[in-house]
Amino acid sequence: MKVYHSKVLENRLISTNIYKMTIEIDNLNNDIKPGQFFMLKTLDNSFLLPRPISVNEVGVNTVTFVYRIQGTGTKSISYVKLKDYIQATGPLGNGFDINLINGRVAIIGGGIGIAPLLYLTKCLKTTSDVYLGYKDEVYLVDEFRRYANKTVVVTENGGIGFKGFVTDYVDYNNYDIVITCGPEIMMNKIASKCRDLNIKCLVSLERRMACGLGACLGCTVETIYGNKRACKDGPIFAGEEILVQWRK
Ligand SMILES: Cc1cc2nc3c(=O)[nH]c(=O)nc-3n(C[C@H](O)[C@H](O)[C@H](O)COP(=O)(O)OP(=O)(O)OC[C@H]3O[C@@H](n4cnc5c(N)ncnc54)[C@H](O)[C@@H]3O)c2cc1C
Ligand code: FES
Q1: Number of neighbours of residue 240 by Cβ within 10 angstroms
Q2: 21, part of any domain
Q3: For residue range 184-209, what is the model confidence (pLDDT) as tens digits?
């Protein structure tokens, strides 16, 4: 992990309130695992805490993020102009261990939770079926199609792709492992289903984070093994490990 002051190579709107930002990071040596994140912060808003944003893509000396404007922090990041500099601390978190992801893989993303799953799909040693759930507008679909065996698009209003919830279009019995990132209600449903069917499940958990480094305990997650830190021990957890907190 390092603190970089990185040049912004792109920061553009790709859908309503959704931005894609690519920054330059030299000598990263392909050290980034899918599922890891950076704490991002603009250089002019020093009073704001950095915000955790997942790695969406990694290129030669570049890292790309896709983020949704949620509040003050992400809004300020969206104002960063081309060739400006941004503070990026990372890579952080455990990330996915791709050597342990084998067999028939389903990747299920919901909303902005789709963003970190692209680099995972690219890095996997096995092909995967990808299920993408959106409210109405879609993004990153062509990028997923580049790497996935099959890409299923579902929107709540049915305007694009299938209609309804993405979880209803997955035949879980076809898979050895299911990986998900998205709203907690969706991940809870998927983790429960996988537990019932005895299928391995990995979830990427979101928590509000202050330090991102494992120091403040602000991101504590209750697991069957006791409390863990989403930023340091996660954000990737086995689904059954954290079902305990979703059951409450
Ligand atoms: C490991 C990790 C990876 C992430 N990756 C991405 C990513 O790739 N793309 C992306 O768009 N977002 C991602 N997020 C979420 C992102 O960090 C938050 O949206 C951002 O920190 C919000 O900051 P803000 O200042 O814009 O909003 P704030 O002003 O801080 O908050 C605005 C509103 O959003 C709620 N909120 C803020 N953060 C969270 C949160 N983490 N969970 C639930 N509610 C929240 C607040 O309660 C408030 O109501 C990730 C979060 C984590 C923990
Ligand atoms: S955000 Fe500080 S310990 Fe996780």
Answers
A1: 17
A2: yes
A3: 999 999 999 999 999 999 999 999 99
